Amino acid sequence: MKNLLLLFILIVSISYQSKAQDLPAAWKLSEDGRRLIAGGENQGGFFSPDQIQEVQLSFAQANWWNLLEANYDSGTDLLATCWINGVQYDSVGVRFKGATSYRRNNTDKKSFNITLDYIIDGQDIEGYNTFNLNCGWDDNSSMKEVLYNTLGYRYYMGLKSNYANLSINGQYWGPYQSVQQFDSDYIKEWYLSNNGTIWRAERTAGTTGGGGGGGRPNFGAGRSSLNYNGPDSSDYNTDYTLKRTEQADPWAGLIAACDVLNNEPLISLEEELSKVLDIDKTCWYLAHEVIFSDDDSYINKGGSDYYVYFEAETGRIIPMEYDGNSVLGANNLNWDLFYRENETDFPLMNRFLSIPSIRQRYLAHVRSILEDYFTSSYADPLIDDWAAMIDSSVQADPKKFYTYSEYQSALNSLKQSIVTRRNFLLNDAELTNINPLSIDQVSYSVNGQNWQAPTSTEEVDVQSLISGSSGVSSVWLYYGESLSGSFEKIEMFDDGLHNDGAAADGQYGASIPPMSLGTYVRFYVEAIANDAASTKSYEPKGAEHDVYIYQVLTESATDKPIVINELMAQNDAAVADSAGDYDDWLELYNTSGTSVDLSGWSLSDDINELDKYVFPSGSILDADSYLVIWADEDLDQGDFHADFKLSADGESLYLSNNMQELVDVVNFPSTNADMAYARLPNGSGPFIFQAHTIGQFNGSANSATDLDPELDFKLYPNPASDFIRLEFEVGNEKLYTLKIYSISGKVLYESHDLLSADIIIGLSGFAQGIYVIQVELEDRLFSKKFIKQ
Q1: Sign of torsion, CA 41 311 324 159?
Q2: How confident is the model over 621-676, as pLDDT tens digits?
């Protein structure tokens, strides 16, 4: 029963305000505010995947093509005028880009790099000053790079990609894959700052003959595949191109990571490597390359077509993907999950993945990608939509290096490659001979209140239900301070002693220690199966780029006479203010027996700005009295009109005293129009949705002294399974209205009839959870909760 109550307890959410610390563009909070997620859907803008951009270039020189060819080796831009969807951009820089797509491509369908701010500082398109138009050489589907980046964006730091129709000097050049530039703008979308260092890993001085790769090209493996080349930066500057840096010693982080990766004894490698390399991001990176059997990659060519970023905030490096036009090649579909693991030139495969715990983290991420994204059901609709979108452009393309028939065939081949590759990987022994655990019902609580943010003196108890046929070896809670950085690791227990419920009930618990005021805390759960491989599972599955999060609140006041008693976040026509406006509102109630001076007290919907609305001097709330504040951003209408509005999608409200100590916090979920969220019993009970009682007593769920005695009904069984029974002491026949609400305020059942002694309601259509029954009789309300199990 305790597990059931924990599972279905009435939950409320904290909505973190991005204005407190602006999140990178690729990050977001989940709708309930409980998870911080990096990546996801590429939602739109210049790189919107569901539209074709129209790009026109105009060169003044008649011999512009020859000039571009002459500039290729030096990477020098040629001036041009550019129009994007009809908007003119003057003095942009244009150059050819790519290696094989340029040198082996004997057609006019070359790839281009376009720099909008080449001359005019600040000139950009929706924040992007540079972008690439890739021709898709060796990809007759003209789709691999867009697919590679779009899927990768869901779980890794993918480049944004879509399509653009290109015209040059009035001539149509066909459709291109428009791909985001790997530059400072890209880094700022994925990291908290741009204060680190970017390298392109590419061997620029000859090749290396190490390794023994069975005929593979030596593009830098053994030198620029995170190998240790020595202690001096001069040993690296021909193997990595320094693109930009904000560091006084830009090479130090790279050299330190290469040293540890290649030279640290295996027994201590994971611990030391975690200080200089982001282990989790690297696992996702390798999983992405391996699953797509990426020919131009770290895992195949070593120092070619990948980047390295040094993150200043954490002091760690991260390998990052760059080129995706050569994925899913027919000859590479049988690469195993640990391709190159026996070759010392590839230390990320050879040493990094030889550590059992890292190996299992990598495999967990592989499983997640194969289960959720690298599937026909996910990829085929994307391919079909893009094919329909660019079909006419492909047919009209005068520069394409494939026929239209070859293009259509390549689309089918791409779909089949996904099926072939996925089936091959799913038959890998390290994926088939395991029984991963299930992690469910993760929640956190403070002093028994689920999803309640802590103050700086309070621990946070994390609970999770773990199950699986293989049995549980151990469960671990990872938690980290701030919005980025490393995680601490503590064990979770199912012994009845760690706020985990009863011993041996499958629910595990552990506590995160108190943190300082305002600290963001991220956490996730790792479960290790009791099988031969010590198989790992994670919740959220996307950890560490998808994690639970909370923020430590300011200090709580010891004296709390005032409560937020009722609110309405979607007031369409329920109650108007003195100006006749239907605005959001909230109600305060003085629970004490004496008047309270609210002068200098404040209300806010932002934990980092508690004084959004400050009560004016002389604001007195008498004992057992109510005060309504209109949340309408209209201060001109009077003293009790706050400078913020309530969100109908749900958020948090904070009431602070004149010492900036929290007196009350209400975390309310999404609301329906004209429904109030009110305490029952009045002033002290939990919140439920009901018809408003603005400025008045909310009613009592524990006492019938203020209600019609006929409404003092019995409700059973509770918890209920098939039905719920209500018994009334009926005196006179009266009309009543009975409603059943979900905890989000949605009306699921409603009846209007003459009150009878016995009412039975079937629950076959109700999911497991907590519900509120509300009975209205002659404008009097009575509410009770029940659990459907």
Answers
A1: positive
A2: 999 999 999 999 988 888 899 999 999 888 889 999 998 888 998 888 788 888 89
